[in-house]
Design goal:
Layout (H helix, E strand, L loop, with lengths): L4 E4 L16 H12 L6 E4 L5 H5 L4 H12 L3 E2 L5 E2 L3 H21 L4 E4 L21 H13 L4 E5 L6 H7 L5 E8 L21 E6 L5 H19 L3 E6 L16 H18 L3 E5 L5 H16 L13 H11 L4 H5 L1
Parallel strand pairs: 1-2, 1-5, 5-10, 6-7, 6-9, 7-8, 9-10
Antiparallel strand pairs: 3-4
């Protein structure tokens, strides 16, 4: 078994967004940083493209056809933030396919952890809508693939991108076989993810939204992951943990006002890695946002280093932030694994 697996594909560079913060240089910056450190010992594998059946498990046929058709016609704008070029559909398919292939490797015992390094990101894409730079929801495809192809009963998604993963939230909102936990800045695009959104129907209590005010830094973000998300995960006991890993909460990122440091991402990655170790679940990371190139490359590499290390880091001496205290009080009064955790 290799210590870690990295899925990537050159099609990520063919998603042409022009003058846009979500650009091909994001991938080349990360790959350059990883290459300088011998890929952290990971096995680097080219990802397959997701086929329509894999995509159709979470997206409507009309949505898939719409994105593919726009690419075939030479591309165009979906909304003011989201663009499609001739290479975009292939890039998005490899992104989803890479995330699913990572799941196969983790659950098949080929690697104990790893990452899917692709663009465009995916967590804003809903079942029938592309938005927020996202065309296909790679992490949702991966989670559903774990349930369908591997017979899992419980998958956990931890989303620490600075923007709420509204697409993932929507796709699994009424389900109890996927626990979705998100820390995100609010108010901020896309304007979703209030603490009151805990899922609905059979999924009530299996969505945990943890909005933080602008300007929040390591104290709040790391405490919410360590003191809220990790205990909820232990109560849920997922068989797989996936991370929607955006690095745009960094203090140097231009698209938000959160103040997370490099060390903060290391701490959050450590919390998730320890959770996986405690419950015997593999952990996989899927790239989402992050738009300051040097910071993105540095933070992604640092987080991946924690995940692929021989052993998880020791738990930090981390005070319970007031935001985490209030979240725990709120969750204790609600349904689902969150209430059982506190």
């Amino acid at each position: 078994m290799v210590p870690g697996l990295l899925l990537r594909h050159p099609s990520s560079l063919e998603h042409d967004t022009g003058s846009h913060p979500e650009r091909a240089a994001r991938i080349t910056a990360i790959e350059s940083a990883l290459a300088q450190q011998d890929w952290l010992g990971c096995e680097v594998v080219e990802s397959p493209a997701a086929d329509p059946a894999l995509l159709g498990a979470v997206h409507s046929a009309a949505h898939i056809d719409r994105v593919e058709g726009l690419a075939l016609r030479g591309g165009g704008m979906i909304d003011m933030d989201t663009t499609v070029s001739t290479g975009s559909y292939a890039a998005a398919c490899h992104g989803a396919g890479g995330a699913a292939a990572l799941v196969d490797a983790l659950l098949g015992g080929a690697a104990r952890t790893g990452a899917s390094l692709h663009r465009p990101p995916g967590h804003h894409a809903g079942a029938a809508r592309a938005m927020g730079f996202c065309l296909l929801n790679s992490i949702a495809v991966a989670a559903q693939h774990a349930l369908d192809a591997h017979g899992l009963e419980r998958v956990m998604i931890v989303d620490w991108d600075v923007h709420h993963g509204n697409g993932t939230n929507e796709i699994f909102s009424a389900r109890d076989d996927v626990l979705f936990c998100s820390v995100h800045e609010s108010p901020l695009y896309p304007g979703t993810g209030p603490a009151s959104d805990v899922g609905d129907g059979a999924g009530e209590g299996f969505t945990v939204n943890l909005p933080v005010p602008g300007g929040s830094g390591d104290d709040a973000w790391c405490s919410l992951v360590e003191h809220v998300i990790a205990p909820v995960g232990r109560a849920y006991a997922p068989q797989l943990v996936l991370v929607s890993a955006g690095f745009d909460a960094h203090t140097e990122d231009p698209l938000a006002t959160s103040r997370v440091s490099d060390a903060g991402f290391v701490t959050m990655a450590g919390s998730v890695r320890r959770l996986g170790e405690e419950i015997g679940a593999p952990v996989g990371m899927v790239l989402e946002g992050g738009y300051a190139l040097e910071v993105l490359a540095r933070s992604f590499t640092a987080a991946l280093r924690v995940l692929v290390a021989q052993a998880p880091p020791a738990a930090p001496s981390l005070a319970v932030d007031p935001l985490a205290e209030r979240a725990l009080e709120r969750l204790a009064a609600g349904p689902g694994p969150a209430a059982a955790a506190v």
